[in-house]
Design brief:
about 20% strand, alpha/beta, five-stranded parallel beta sheet, 7 strands, single chain, about 20% helix, two-stranded antiparallel sheet
Length: about 120
């Protein structure tokens, strides 16, 4: 129910093509990555929206054409979703960006990334 409501809040039509991006990291959202996405396709900014949790974003995630995100807890959720059959319609292209200056590599989480088509962006 919350996931469907979030889709409406974000003004996403279920048949619409869109790219999801999440440039922020750290629990206080103070970190920000430079993420460049295709602006010819609708862009949905993944951000904290009062009244919704990270898990409410699952419907937005599984219907995205592409996902651009820094390496955060969302990567673990992607893997869980893949292993439990949430990406049945399609598997979006997922681009993972470093959390500069907090990390120099993808070693903190790349060991779990086996189920989906990830591209690491330096």
């Amino acid at each position: 129910l919350s996931a469907t409501k979030l889709m409406k809040t974000l003004d996403i039509n279920p048949d619409e093509k869109y790219n999801l991006y999440n440039p922020t990291f750290r629990s206080d959202f103070s970190g920000k990555a430079d993420i460049v996405i295709d602006l010819d396709v609708k862009a949905i900014h993944m951000k904290n929206i009062p009244g919704y949790t990270l898990l409410d974003w699952y419907k937005v995630i599984i219907n995205a054409n592409e996902i651009h995100t820094v390496g955060t807890s969302i990567v673990y959720i992607f893997e869980w979703m893949a292993k439990h059959g949430y990406f049945v319609r399609q598997c979006p292209k997922i681009f993972i960006y470093k959390r500069i200056p907090d990390e120099n590599s993808f070693e903190n989480y790349n060991y779990i990334m086996s189920s989906l088509n990830y591209t690491f962006v330096e």
